[in-house]
Amino acid sequence: MSIKINLLPDVRQEKLQEKQRRQLAATIAIATGVVGLALIVVGFVIVQGQNLRIALLTRSIRDKKQQVASFQDVGTILSLQGRVAALPQLYSQRTYMTELTSILSTHEPSDVAFTNLTIASQQLTLSAEAKSYLAAARIAKAMEAAASSDQTKFFSNVQLSSVTLNNGKVAYTITATINSGATDGK
Q1: In a 3-state reduction of DSSP, which class is residue 174?
Q2: Which helix (H) or strand (E) element contains residue 122?
Q3: Which of 53, 92, 129, 147 has an alpha carbon within 20 to 30 A of 37's alpha carbon?
Q4: What's CA 156's distance to the chain center, in Å?
């Protein structure tokens, strides 16, 4: 037979259990507070780091802006960059006019000044001024006569038109249809 002796009364045991529960609750509250405070500190550090980075980048942008503004011809530089960027497209659309340049270099008198050259839909328009009508007629005749080795004409329908006299100079326009051999780039 065994005898059970209750050394601590039930009230005392409940009081000890209550004390342990309070200590556990206090420990959890303190741990939660410490974790919360740590998160607040970490968040504050992150925000301050971001503010510092923003300030540094803003200062860097301002410095670069002042540096760019200090260039004397910044507008010219930027427009040149745009023009350089357009070159590949223009280069792919170029028209070889080796036969026309050959004719002009061979038959061009020194008293001729070319004012305009346009090429649209295989139609050539050449405007110039010369001291005499004879210089204009020579270029038109040379264009009419230009042919490849197999006698294919480079230009057809060559017409000398819009001939006017301005301040002692003859202004004229030559129009012609460009045939295939004139633009082959050889």
Answers
A1: strand
A2: none
A3: 53
A4: 41
DSSP annotation of 181: G
Stated length of the chain: 186
CB distance 149 to 158 below 8 Å: no
Convert the pLDDT of each residue in 59-69 to its tens digit: 999 998 888 77
Give me the torsion for CA of 143, 144, 146, 147, rounded to 10°.
140
Instruction: Write the DSSP symbol of residue 3.
Output: -
Q: Specify the amino acid at residue 140.
A: A
CA angle 91, 184, 143 (to 5 degrees): 110
Closest by CA to 181, choosing from 149, 158, 157, is 149
Amino acid at the residue 139: I
The CA distance from 175 to 156, in Å, is 9
CA 154, 159, 162, 164 dihedral sign is: positive
What's the token pair of residue 9? 């009364």
Where helices occur in the chain by DSSP H, the ranges are 10-69, 74-92, 98-107, 133-145
pLDDT higher than threshold 60 for residue 185: no
- Please say if the pLDDT value at position 35 is more than 80: yes
CB atoms within 10 A of CB 140: 20
Q: Which residue has the tokens 């050539």?
A: 124
Stated as kind and residue range, the H or E segment containing 117 is strand 113-120
Structure tokens at 87: 């070159």
CA–CA gap between residue 77 and residue 161 (Å, rounded): 42
